[in-house]
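Below is how a single chain appears once it has passed through the pipeline. First comes the sequence as given, then the structure the pipeline wrote out for it. We keep one example in the README because the format questions we get most often are answered faster by looking than by reading.
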Amino acid sequence: MPAVMSWLVFGLACVLVAAGGALGGADPMDAALALGFTPLGAYLLSRREGGAVGPCCLVTVLGAAAYFADSYASRPDLPGTPWAAWVGAWVWAPALLTVSGVLLLLVPDGRLPGRAWVPVAATGVAATAAFTVVAALVPEDVARPFSVEALAPVRDALPAVIVILAATSLACAAGLVVRTARAQGEQRTQLLWICLGAAAFVAGVFLPAVVRLPAAGVPFILALPACVGVAMLRHDLYGTGPWLRRALTLGLLAGALALLYFTVDGLTGAHVAAAAAVAVAVEPLHRWLRRASGRILYGGGPDPEAVHARLGARLAATSEPGEILAAVADAVAEATRATYVRAELGTPGEPLKVVERGAPAPLGVSVPLRFQNEDLGALGASGGDSRVLAPLASHAGAALAAAHRAAALQRSRTLLVTAREEERRRISRDLHDGLGAFLAGIGFTVDAAGNALRADPDRARNLLTQIRTQVAEAGAGVRRLVRGLRPPELAQLGLTGAVEHTAATLGDGGVEIEITSEDVGGLPAAVEVTAYLVAREALTNAVRHGAPRRCAVRLGRVAGGFELSVRDDGRGLGPEAVPGVGLTSMRERVEELDGKLTIDAAPGGGTVVTAWIPL
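Resulting structure:
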């Protein structure tokens, strides 16, 4: 419905301008304002682009109303001319003042640059409304069909309102210039065109006061919508490139086929031959015109559709994570023509894979790589526009997700192999330096006791006592070694008992800990160890940092896996909380088993830690 209404507004503007021209015409500035901006506003609203820019452009339909009213008032032979003159005296103001003020602040995305500009926009709107009210209702020297005598003293405030309007327009123009200077890549080029059109528009507003020529300011008034159109056509403002390319291709194709048909028909007089010529030419002509429309729209720049097609073909031909990421980086380099492109999978600071193109340089634009709400990495370039990078990142989302999982799996395997070898080294060192030394010492002591058994029985007895002590120490060393391999409480008490043992230890501080366990028997050893260590770490964190009164632990099998949840009613995690070693360790342990760990705020306060491990 908004799309239909917006095009109806444009149609109304055309009807009013045509009717005003038929009546003899008036100042064409108002007509140019309406015909220049209402189609832009209708297009933006129908495409749901530009935010508030579209409605602001449609306000210029009041310029068409002013043009018609002034044209009607110039014909004294028509009835109601005083009313038409009254309408024409004030209805132009909202149209012109909106474009020369607030619109410059909102273009191109329809949002204010920041909160600091809210007072400027509010002042512009209030001053425009005040000027319109003064122009419409304050009595003038000439007779008016409608005026409010009580507002006559307000006429003295009109110069102040005009000064405020001028200051607001200058501030909005300055804001546009500042945003242009701060922009990067393609967005800066778009804003440069808009700045050029805005400068011409402002000049066109004041030019009639200097140059007494009919329609002197019309080209300048039309410069702003024309420059916005150039930014849309050549620099993909509002993402119009693909839509305009299809429309341009079909339009040129229809015209070329019609020309071919009538040419062949005129030369041969045979309708069948003309139809056959059209049937033969339609496919090659369509391909040629498609390329031609791409050159018209994108100039010497790359065709986004072609870039996406090449990226899709390359992604379909590879499955290596590095090659997938390289394909995306190459596509970005081709689309943006940036001197430096960086594509990475993984978290910032700890990337799993990184692919770079060009010499390292500061990134001017960066977009996240995401797939199904999963953060995969980041894609950045030294130049370009996020509206160019974002579709490429979205296009490659599924392939990048597969590459991310493959890279994460490889990283996990590497870490697992490293941890295993480090554990073997530790065990070897403990056996060699600890148990090996004890056994060697026992052997020497046994030999000494054997030698002294007959000659010195007392010394042999002392040596046997020493052997007993050494055996006890060796046994303690073995127990320490076993403790390092698997938590002893888990081996002795089982998963539920081990968690209850930990809860009893932590509950001495007055925290009530409830354990619920269902069907935990027969779990794989790795799942048992991970579940116990996660439960112990979660309970420890809750008691130490959350100050809870009650904690609840639930253990049990669920569809397809094993689930552990630890919930407390403490302070919970703050919004700025950064995962520490404990939380990171829990997540890594669960993900090593292809599981998932979530940490959320509990309803009513506190934190709930949930770990799911497939079985």
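The first helix runs from residue 2 to 22.

See the next section for the split statistics.
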